[in-house]
Design brief:
Diaminopimelate decarboxylase; lyase; binds pyridoxal-5'-phosphate; 8-stranded parallel β-barrel; 12 helices; 3-stranded mixed sheet; alpha/beta
Length: 411
């Protein structure tokens, strides 16, 4: 099925034929820049690229040019010949070599650079970089992130199973979510991952999971700090109207419950996650100040908590229009002193800022057609591979490779 996603690559011969019909009326054609792609984050599990035949998961990763370690650079670049390159390799050539299309193309060096940017920012701070698996759960990517020393942030039993399959260190994994199922909590308890407590019933389930598994569970309290992340309401999760986390006036109840279950629960820290696409790092600082006050209070009550988890949410460059966005260093610099002053281990949960700029969804034009009033460029990609733009108009950067886009003029 072809979607309305408009991606144009080097034209096939049939497209060339079709386009030739329009060459006579060039005034109705707009010159378009180059290729496509990826700013939303859904994984494609089955990626078929010949050059990746050695990889069991068939993820295509470009590996050249990894000597450029400037953090957060975009690895997809249009060069002077008008083509898009990934780490020095022409995407067009990769497209020609694949067995099946469309496909997602990832840059392994870019993933590495993104992690390195966080690591550099976190130097001198005891920390865990917990990759939020929901951002992209491709196993090959998970394995690469694990090999770089990342932990994993999970929001379902299946994400937990994936993390275990990718051999993440369980002590660097955090199980989040406000609807965690008992059976998944049992698995989490058995595996020894950290679990965030989100509500009263969640706490009851964690206690039950501990009893079933016979394992004490390391828990963090997910506190809703009521800080406005100034983002789209759909991705704001740390303000008081959100369904996530516990309200500060209930904190004492949770502390008493933890105290009442010493065999089942060990309180190790506090967590918050404000939302996604945050572009002002002061917001993280505002939340961290509040969270550290909670930790002070929790410690005053005799708990030996040592983890502050400030969640994920660092904004990314969706529009590629030259916006200056905060880097991991900017983010960590706003909380560094606070964390060090309390001798805390810092957990961060980046998702899209680790993976979004590493990937492009490569489509090929199947043909062009008209319904008399509107012209369509039909491609091989569809909402089966990338649902969000069609589903709710999510923004997707499309870059056209080569030639002309026919305007919506009847012909
Ligand atoms: C608890 C939690 N942590 C981390 C993330 C990752 O956020 P982002 O991809 O914006 O970094 C999310 C995303 O929804 C989340 O809910």
């Amino acid at each position: 099925m072809a979607s309305a996603t408009h991606l144009l690559s080097q034209p096939s011969s049939s497209l060339r034929r079709n386009l030739n019909q329009y060459q006579s009326n060039r005034s109705s054609l707009s010159r378009i820049p180059v290729l496509s792609l990826k700013s939303t984050l859904k994984p494609l599990q089955r990626l078929s690229v010949k050059a990746a035949a050695s990889s069991p998961n068939s993820v295509k990763t470009a590996t050249k040019g990894s000597d450029d370690h400037s953090a957060f650079n975009h690895c997809f670049k249009k060069q002077s010949d008008g083509f898009l390159y990934c780490e020095g390799t022409k995407v067009e050539e990769i497209m020609e070599s694949v067995e099946r299309r469309p496909f997602y193309l990832y840059s392994k060096p870019q993933i590495t650079r993104n992690v390195e940017a966080y690591k550099e920012a976190l130097e001198g701070v005891s920390s865990v970089i917990g990759y939020a698996i929901k951002a992209n759960n491709n196993l090959k990517i998970l394995e690469h992130l694990r090999s770089l020393g990342c932990g994993a942030v999970l929001v379902s039993g299946n994400e937990l199973r994936l993390a275990l399959r990718a051999c993440f260190d369980p002590t660097k994994c955090i199980f989040n979510g406000n609807g965690k199922l008992l059976e998944d909590l049992v698995l989490a308890a058995q595996a020894g991952v950290f679990v965030n407590v989100d509500s009263e019933f969640d706490l009851d389930n964690i206690v039950e999971a501990s009893r079933i598994s016979g394992k004490q569970v390391n828990v963090l309290l997910r506190i809703n700090p009521d800080v406005d992340p100034q983002v789209h309401p759909y991705v704001a999760t740390g303000n008081k109207n959100s369904k996530f986390g516990i309200r500060n006036e209930k904190l004492q109840w949770f502390l008493d419950e933890v105290k009442a279950h010493p065999n089942e629960l060990k309180l190790v820290g506090a967590h918050c996650h404000l939302g996604s696409t945050i572009t002002k790092v002061d917001i993280f600082r505002d939340a961290a100040v509040l969270m550290v006050e909670y930790i002070d209070e929790i410690r005053r009550q005799g708990f030996e908590v040592s983890y502050l988890n400030i969640g994920g949410g660092l904004g990314i460059d969706y529009y590629h229009a030259g916006a200056i966005l905060p880097t991991p260093m900017d983010l960590i610099n706003t909380v560094r002193e606070l964390v060090l002053s309390r001798g805390l281990n810092l957990i961060i949960e980046p998702g899209r800022s680790l993976i979004a700029n590493t990937c492009c969804f490569v489509n090929h034009v199947t043909g062009v057609k008209t319904n008399g009033t509107k012209n369509f460029i039909v491609i091989d990609g569809s909402m089966a591979e990338l649902i969000r733009p069609s589903l709710y108009d999510a923004y997707q950067l499309n870059i056209f490779l080569v030639l002309f886009l026919v305007t919506t003029k009847a012909y």
